[in-house]
Amino acid sequence: MQRRLEAMSALSIPTEFHVYEGLSHGFGLGTGTVAEGWLNDAAAFWEEQM
User: Fold this and answer.
1) Per-residue model confidence (pLDDT) at position 11
2) Residue 49 burial (CB < 10 Å; 0-12/13-18/19+)?
3) Is 30:38 a contact under the CB 8 Å cutoff?
4) What is the pLDDT at residue 45?
5) Environment class of residue 22 by beta-carbon count within 10 Å: exposed (0-12), middle (13-18) or buried (19+)?
6) How far is it, in rounded angstroms, from Cα 37 to Cα 15?
7) What span, in angstroms and rounded, lies between the C-alpha atoms of 8 and 30?
8) What is the pLDDT of residue 40?
9) pTM
10) By the 8 A CB rule, do 30 and 40 touch?
11) How far apart are CA 27 and CA 29, in angstroms?
12) Which of these, 29, 27, 48, lies nearest to 39 by C-alpha position?
């Protein structure tokens, strides 16, 4: 993933990547976890790119 992010950044493609401690991929909405609110953060990033 790091190489992919670096390649996209080299092409001036905005990226954002988050690692949520203690969670693996596929944590749903993250309710009650350290990832709670990730969907709002993702939507805000997508809106910035439009």
Assistant:
1) 98
2) exposed
3) yes
4) 97
5) exposed
6) 18
7) 27
8) 96
9) 0.76
10) no
11) 6
12) 29
Residue whose pair of structure tokens reads 């905005």 in the numeric block: 14
Distance from the Cα of residue 32 to its chain's centroid: 18
Ranges of H-type helices in 1-50: 2-10, 38-49
Tokens representing 24? 């693996």
Look at residue 5 and give its three-state secondary structure.
helix
Tens-digit pLDDT profile for residues 2-47: 999 999 999 999 999 999 999 988 888 999 999 999 999 999 999 9
DSSP state of 38: H
